Amino acid sequence: MKNRLKEVIESLIFISLEPLSLEKIKNVLTEFPEQEIGQAINELLESYISNERGIQIIQSAGGYLFSTKPEHDSWVKRLLKVERKNKLSSAALEVLSAVAYHQPITLAEISALRGVDSTHTLKTLLQKKLIKIVGRKRSPGNPLIYRTSDKFLTHFGLNSIKDLPSPEELSKILEEESIIEEEDKSEH
Amino acid sequence: MDTSATYQVKLEVFQGPLDLLLFLIRKKKIDIHDIPIATITREYLEYLNHKERINLDREAEFLLIATLLIYIKSQMLIPREKALEDEEEDPRQILVDRLLDYQKIKAASVLLREKEEEELQTWKRTFLPSLYSQEEMDYMEVSLFDLAESFFALLKRKEKRETKTIKGKEFSLEEKMKKIIDFLEENSFLDFLDYFDQQGSFEEAITSFFSLLELIRSGIVIAIQESIFQPIKVWLRKKANTKRSR
């Protein structure tokens, strides 16, 4: 019975194009106790790590999803006849970082942080659905406020926004970098 | 980051990229009074003159930081009365706080780039080679005129075929509307042209067309065209589905 449960979950993840959340799995498998489902998922994940397989189960945007392994990238690309999936521009990444770390945030706040007008970049990101409008700020002009979307998480392979380093950790990284740079400098 | 490509400042007290200099000034590890900004700008202009290609982003960044430096130094050089000084914040602090916030975002964006690179190497089943441009396909809602135009094209098609006289069978709007909804519930969407092609008679087609307009007007269905010259598809607007209604 338990083995079957693992296989059922595998089918469910396989047929899902979007990351499949634990919640959804539970909703489908009403006849199984929740605890067994959780355990079966863990076993399933383990079996994919240990076995020699070309595909893996990733945890993305709070759900489970099948993907190919990164080391097979070049062959997959050959099959699909694509050179490379589109990367975001540096400006887009900066705006996304600003939103990710300061959300909810307005356009004016993003532009001030970057020191550059970010209207166009923001619009593109909205079209790509990497960010979303979550309402209006109660301040003069009632500007729109933005947050990162689930698609943001899947685009960067994050399970949740908490996967990003905290602002404190970022300062630490910066601090270390400048120390390294200083050391480099003194060596010359 | 590629530091070798960025412009390096060479001074007695400091050698390296300009943003690092600003950082050190903030940390008060270097005294701004020791930094000859005139020398920095002069040498930078010379460097620009010798450069064949200019990377606008990078040069703009240099300008920004150089301006900040000049501002900080000018503020430090102007003698101030003590009382005034207490009221105002240290100009270095404001600017440098802003710069630090920006540096954090930059560090985060470098991190995101790494994550993106990793992610781009794993392929999901959702990936389909895009038929259109790299830009994500934007659906456009078709206007009444697009619908009408398609409809007239269709009537012309029908005209050629139908030479027999039409026997009077009455079609009611309500009946047709119900039929369209039933069809949509079963098939999820209908192809505008195909649907009207299936209609038995001229009169029936017109009734269907009016029913469809009525359904669109009352927001029960939505007509969508993937891009110009593509078939117009009609979808049932689901109550929960607010995705496209922005």
Topology (elements, then pairings):
The complex is a heterodimer of chains A (188) and B (246).
Chain A: H1 2-15, E1 20-21, H2 22-28, H3 34-50, E2 55-60, E3 63-68, H4 73-80, H5 90-102, E4 105-106, H6 107-114, H7 119-127, E5 131-136, E6 144-148, H8 150-155, H9 167-187
Antiparallel strand pairs in A: 1-3, 2-3, 4-6, 5-6
Helix pairs in contact in A: 1-3, 5-6, 5-7
Chain B: E1 8-10, E2 15-17, H1 18-26, H2 37-50, H3 56-77, H4 82-87, H5 91-120, E3 140-141, H6 144-161, H7 173-187, E4 189-191, H8 192-197, H9 202-217, E5 221-225, E6 232-236
Antiparallel strand pairs in B: 1-2, 3-5, 4-6, 5-6
What can you see in these coordinates?
With 188 residues, chain A is of the alpha+beta class. Helix content of chain A is 55%, strand content 14%. Chain A is built from 9 helices and 6 strands, in the order αβααββααβααββαα. Chain A has a 3-stranded antiparallel β-sheet with strand order 1-3-2. Chain A is globular and about 55 Å long. The termini of chain A are far apart. The model of chain A has no long low-confidence stretch (mean pLDDT 85). The C terminus of chain B is likely disordered. With 246 residues, chain B is of the alpha+beta class. In chain B, strand 5 and strand 6 form a beta hairpin. Chain B folds into 2 domains: 113 residues, no CATH class; 97 residues, Structural maintenance of chromosome 1. Chain E (Arc Repressor Mutant, subunit A, Orthogonal Bundle). At the A-B interface, strand 3, helix 4, helix 5 and helix 9 of A face helix 1 and helix 5 of B.
